[in-house]
């Protein structure tokens, strides 16, 4: 590697160059599936970087390559300056890893939270005196001190995730690789986890690479986002710039009771409504998503039109684009 290349690598905590991975298709030794397709990006030190995409986009495969669990077929990747293929031990010593473990399955449920952390500290060769101090600090940070000696099997899903996060931070590594850490959590648990991750990145200066299929979650957490689709990175930018790219998909969501047919007739005639994007019938109400010219004007005109026509409005809000719409825009699947 040239001196110039070394300087480029030093700028990033995580870097991939043409990273590619194939898997054999089930039932066929000759057919292959392209899971990661020549992916290149760099993550700066201390950056909260998101990999956004649906299931099957290649996010988890990419994270596992960065963790040295999967060997790429083409390209290279470096984590904290270490090559994932040539220097795997250096990579392992530089990362904390959390993968989507619905319900905390990777924890030992018949051990306490403290004993789980002690066990993982032993596996990672952390000296016992250092491990004890670090575990006490992590239990306090994640508000687990009072439950530290309870069996994990008695914990809620949110508490199990907190133990897994504590385990991820146990080696005090500079780079944290997190594969859908909020999967399986209820709304409150997900909010709590996001707050903890923001705090860790900001207060402790960790570099975080975070995968999610939730566009709202990515927008709220990440400084930059790489959008993945079918193994490719189709866009990398800040959340603001990505949302501007999909601005034409924004609209409003209206929840009404009464006749769905009557409501749709009124909504379609409101000035500034371009089209009905989606209609969902619930037990006692209807949810209608509309594409509009101007959201602010629609938020005023729609309630007035519904009231004038005797249709009860339950709620109205700006509707964020769906992942499918974002991908259609970014990959050129929809033409103007």
Q: Care to describe what's here?
A:
This protein has helices spanning 3-10, 59-66, 88-94, 113-123, 128-141, 157-169, 187-204, 215-221, 239-245, 260-269, 295-308, 323-330, and strands at residues 12-24, 32-44, 48-52, 74-79, 82-83, 95-98, 175-179, 207-212, 224-229, 232-237, 251-256, 273-281, 286-292, 313-319. The protein is built from 12 helices and 14 strands. It has 2 domains: 3-244, P-loop containing nucleotide triphosphate hydrolases (Rossmann fold); 251-319, Alpha-Beta Plaits (2-Layer Sandwich). A hairpin with a 7-residue loop joins β1 and β2. It has a 6-stranded mixed beta sheet, with helices on both faces. With 336 residues, the chain is an alpha/beta fold. The model is unreliable at 1-9 (pLDDT under 50).
Largest sheet: 6 strands, mixed
Let me know the average pLDDT: 86
End-to-end distance, in Å? 45 Å
Q: What is the approximate shape?
A: globular
Let me know the number of strands: 14
- Helix-strand topology string: HEEEHEEHEHHHEHEHEEHEHEEHEH
The percent of residues in helical segments reads 25-40%
The Rg value, from CA coordinates, equals 24 Å
Number of domains: 2
Q: Any low-confidence stretches, pLDDT <50, length ≥5?
A: 1-9
Supply the CATH architecture of the largest domain: 3-Layer(aba) Sandwich
- Strand % is 25-35%
Strand order of the largest sheet: 6-7-8-3-9-10
